[in-house]
Amino acid sequence: MLDIKHLRTLVALRDGGTLVEAARRMHLTQSALSHQLKDLEERLGVALFLRKSKPLRFTRAGLELLQLADSVLPLLRQTERNLQKMAGGHSGRLHMVIECHSCFDWLMPAINSFRDHWPEVEIDLSTSFHFEPIPALQRGDIDLVVTSDPGAQADLHYQPLFRYQSVLALANQHPLVQQRCIQPTDLREETLIHYPVDRQRLDIFERFLTPQGIEPKATRQTELTLMMVQLVASGRGVACLPSWALQPYLDSGLISTRPLGEHGVWPTLYAAIRRDQLDSPFMQDFFQQALDSCFRHLPGIQPALSE
């Protein structure tokens, strides 16, 4: 009567908190998810959660199944890993480069978990401040690039990870805090603080300012997210960063943020690999662990849209 997909659906419902978010995580429509849950409840003859409760609450039967899911799903994943290792591909190299320089906080737990399961895979991690990572990936110098700027190289595969909102960080006393959202022309008289990378790799330029032909009054560069936030808080400029990277500073009241434009700027983050790596068991497992980590740790992200 029970399928593994039912357990995964209940976990997504618990972790997402709503039917809408659970459907996104399962890559289903909300109606398809509701139908799946209703069908399961009819098979079992018992309700699994209270539909009109906020926050969402599970019944005793639902909690019993969640307990089962928390026991079974990790064991199932571990068994899959063991079978993959038996089939070969248990050793190798995973040298990663991050173009999204705010990604360390959620990527490190994924790397640590991955290392526990694949101890024979050599792991290395660096940023792309001082070199172009995509040509290095094509040459085989590195094995994976985390980027929000997918290309059209025939020899590369871009694995979607998630969508995130890029927002403008402002000092709490900044006049633009009074606005509901930021327009490109609002930045003509601002000092824009950003990472030391080419403009085409920065969301604020490629997706917001450059299409409108707008230039900020000045720019300033720093490699550290914390330094960038401190400069913003002290009124030295403004900065564009992912909303999840700024959440701790918002929670502490250090800065304020506003969306870029009426509908916001929502890039998608990708993991780029060579196509000849697609069948690597440890690479596929890393993708899954990275996704699990980011949806567990990052507020406000959304599943990547189907391509």
Features:
D-Maltodextrin-Binding Protein, domain 2; about 300 residues; globular; 5-stranded mixed β-sheet; alpha/beta
- What level of helicity do the residues show? 40-55%
Class derived from helix and strand content: alpha/beta
- So, the CATH homologous superfamily of the largest domain? Periplasmic binding protein-like II
Strand content: 15-25%
The CATH class name of the largest domain reads Alpha Beta
How many domains? The number is 3
Shape: globular
Low-confidence stretches: none
How many helices in DSSP terms?
A: 10
Report the count of strand segments. Answer: 13
Account of the 3D structure:
By secondary structure, this protein is of the alpha/beta class. It folds into three domains: 4-85, Orthogonal Bundle (Arc Repressor Mutant, subunit A); 90-161 and 268-303, Periplasmic binding protein-like II (D-Maltodextrin-Binding Protein, domain 2); 166-259, Periplasmic binding protein-like II (D-Maltodextrin-Binding Protein, domain 2), CATH 3.40.190. It contains ten helices and 13 strands. It has helices at residues 4-16, 19-26, 30-44, 60-86, 104-117, 133-139, 203-209, 225-233, 243-251, 281-297; strands at 49-50, 57-58, 92-98, 121-127, 144-147, 156-163, 166-170, 191-194, 218-221, 238-242, 256-259, 268-274, 302-303. The strands form three sheets. A six-stranded mixed beta sheet has the order 4-3-5-12-6-13, with helices on both faces. A five-stranded mixed beta sheet has the order 9-8-10-7-11, covered by helices on one side. The chain has a two-stranded antiparallel ribbon with strand order 1-2. Helix 1 packs across helix 2 (19-26) and helix 1 packs across helix 4.
